[in-house]
Automatic annotation (TrEMBL):
Protein name according to UniProt: Uncharacterized protein
SUPFAM superfamilies assigned: P-loop containing nucleoside triphosphate hydrolases
Family: Belongs to the ABC transporter superfamily.
Alphabetic keyword roster: ATP-binding, Nucleotide-binding, Transport
Nucleotide-binding among keywords: yes
Keyword Signal included in the entry's annotation: no
InterPro entries per record: AAA+_ATPase, ABC_transporter-like_ATP-bd, ABC_transporter_ATP-binding, P-loop_NTPase
Source domain of life: Bacteria
Amino acid sequence: MNNVVPIYINSLSKSFGNKLVLNNLNLIVEKPSIISIVGNNGAGKSVFLHCMLNFMKYDSGEIRILNQNIDDRIFLRKNTAFVSSDHQDYLEKLTVEEYFELLIDIYQLPANQTINIYHQLSEELNITKELGTNFSELSFGTKKKVQLIGAILYDPKLLVCDEIFEGLDYQATEWVKNLFKKRKAENKTTLFTSHILQHTTEVADRLYRLEGGRLIEEYIN
Ligand SMILES: Nc1ncnc2c1ncn2[C@@H]1O[C@H](COP(=O)(O)OP(=O)(O)OP(=O)(O)O)[C@@H](O)[C@H]1O
């Protein structure tokens, strides 16, 4: 029996000064699935994802990912991946290939096999020419592709993507949707934010709107 709850968030609050961004927000994802969050600019989607993955401090609430409290940051980093909407500070000065090599070391992945996989994925996503380029010099969409490939290499149980479809071409968009579905078939959870409702409704099992600092479930036809 699978008792692992991918996401459990109870009464999460976060403010900046006197500006309350997350207001007793709750989210329970009880089984591997594809979850989407939409919301207006400034609604708090990115702040929510950063708190959830312990990249940002929050004021109060309880967050458990895959049954573990997020204070266990090593567990969190091993079992989750974050594809940010624009940059990843620690990546900026690495080339794409250096980043993938670093992941092989950190996650103790089988080197030859993983090198073959990232070359294959780089071809599929049309970024082979960028393997020697510094992350900071890549285009918006390419940065997302690189982070996605990095995530696939260590195959986390929870993949979190911020504004994933923005900046991706048609082919990459379809590729990402297939990736999310494949992950679900393998009992892994994906949570993504997006402004593009069409992609959201095509792929998500559950859709939430972040509004007034809380998540409100919307129904997908
Ligand atoms: N480090 C920070 N310091 C102060 N305010 C912040 C900080 N980060 C975010 N905010 C504020 O929190 C609110 C939510 O921002 P957030 O980036 O989470 O919105 P979002 O829903 O992701 O928006 P978008 O769709 O435009 O990306 C905004 O009002 C923003 O100005």
